[in-house]
Amino acid sequence: MSEAMRKTVIYRPKDPILIVEDNRETQDLLRGICKNMDVPAVVAVNGEAALGMLDEHEYSIFIVDLMMPVMDGKTFISHLKKRLPESIVLVETALDSPGTIIDIMKMGAFDYIIKPIDPELFQASVVRGLEYKALRDHERNMSMSAGLKIRSQIEWLNYKESRRVADKDYSETKSVYNLKTSLSQGAGFGTLVSLIDVMAATMTGEGDNYIVQKDIVEMLIENNTYCRNQLAGLQSTTAIMDERFPLSRSSASELLEALPGMVEAVLPYIERKKLRITYPELKTNCALDLNFEKIGLMMEELIVNAYKYSVKGSSINIFCHISEGYFWLSIKNDVTEKPYGGIPAEYEKLVVEPFFRLLPPDESAALIEKFGFGLGLAVADNIVRKHNGIFLIHDVKDHTGREAKSCVLAEILLPVVVEE
User: Fold this and answer.
1) 238-258 pLDDT, tens per residue?
2) Residue 143: inside a domain, yes or no?
3) pLDDT tens digit string along 8-32?
4) Is residue 264 in a domain?
5) Taking 70 as the threshold, does the pLDDT of residue 69 lie above it?
6) What SS3 class is residue 397?
């Protein structure tokens, strides 16, 4: 098996695959393919033996032959689904008639594999099963922590409001300090001041004129564009935060359909960094009250933010699920642990404060970035709250690959509308 084929396995489970197969040659073939894929696998010689193994170990997915002695595959799957309703089963069958395939799907099988087994097709089925397993595990983990995250965010919002009322002077002083820090960093006004200092130190006089180095003038002109963009961003931020924009009845499916268009401006930058964006598949639709223009601004900002701090050649993954009465839209990007890492727990609430910057600025997308000065996440938070939702951004560990990776997860929680 080629190295390229081996790399198609995105998710390598911690629990092995259980192959339920009585034929020795087929056992060796399937176990050998799994080994070449770097995926652990064990064998049970029939359904009864497999049920006994369930008492001792957990398994990622199940590959089951239908025709076996002692206990056939259909009986085993029936028992398996009673004990583990969400188990992922790939069925081996020598018949590919529509009736047989329908019967297999009625058993709750995820996929089927036609005998004699083609190694390439078998591998493709295993990859699909493992990736589905990874996605479902990810959604389950997010759902388990959903209630805690929501309560934590509501407590923070209540705390912020009490601080705003009780200690207004401190909040204003802190915002001014954060603004001063943002102005002094990166392209824009901080660079403008530095360029003027360099120009003043290097220019010479000649009559009524000054002679200034050409490259300094060119940098001043280029930096002027950044300054104009930042001023426009400040004006846009003020308008968004002051505006009470209307919401219209829509749906999760319409929102997901619009996502690629919302981030179209960022795609050239994504390609330069050899990144890719994966979009979610909707399992359950729901009604939402949305302002598509503002949601589009927010999504573009979050994808720009993910682009700036993503590991080159990695993926920006967008997930969705419904939990705790909210539609969750989550954006995950890989980050390097050194020198900066992602967003530690103690900064999760602070990064959505106006003008707060946790990391040094990345100006590689300055020409399209609409909100400078560390205002992007504050704008995202404001837009989500005006949708009566909650915005979260925090570090996570991705354990779906061979090694755990550090990631940042931005999560938009939009309230599901219950239609009568």
Assistant:
1) 777 777 889 999 999 999 999
2) no
3) 555 667 789 999 999 999 999 999 9
4) yes
5) yes
6) strand
Neighbours of 108 (CB within 10 A): 16
What is the identity of the amino acid at 255? L
**Where in the sequence is the domain holding 380, given as residue range(s)?**
167-415
The three-class DSSP label of residue 39 is: coil
Residue among 179, 204, 177 nearest 189 (CA) = 179
Mean pLDDT of the chain: 78
d(C-alpha 150, C-alpha 325), whole Å: 11
Claim to verify: residue 224 and residue 78 sit in the same structural domain: no
Tell me: do 99 and 232 sit in the same domain: no
CATH number of the domain at 77, please.
3.40.50.2300
Q: For residue 211, which phi and psi values (nearest 5 degrees)?
A: -105, 120
Sign of the torsion formed by the C-alpha atoms of 16, 18, 23 and 29: negative
What CATH code is carried by the domain that includes residue 391?
3.30.565.10
pTM score above 0.70: no
Number of domains in the chain: 2
Amino acid at 308: K
Alpha carbons 189 and 377: distance in angstroms, whole number: 20
